[in-house]
Design a protein that fits this description.
- This protein is mostly helical.
- It has one domain.
- It is about 75% helix and about 0% strand.
- The protein contains three helices and no strands.
Length: about 80
């Protein structure tokens, strides 16, 4: 879903964007520049928070060990 955002920038910057990037392409250009800095950063922080949750990590380890045991009993 797209959301509309109004920002203010210097007139020279706007003119350069308009000239270099082109009409109706500025929003996509800016989004492509910003997305990796915002989305990946939030993902990295979320992984750090998950790793810091010792109860969650213990549950994940128990789950992993259970899977290994299940496969260990399978006939090949």
């Amino acid at each position: 879903m797209q959301k509309k955002l109004t920002i203010s920038i210097d007139e020279q910057v706007y003119e350069a964007l308009y000239h270099v990037i082109g009409k109706r392409k500025i929003s996509n250009f800016i989004e492509n520049l910003i997305r990796p800095k915002i989305i990946n950063k939030n993902l990295e922080i979320a992984y750090q928070q998950m790793a810091a949750d010792s109860q969650r990590e213990e549950n994940a380890e128990d789950w992993n060990e259970g899977i290994i045991e299940d496969f260990g009993n399978e006939p090949w």
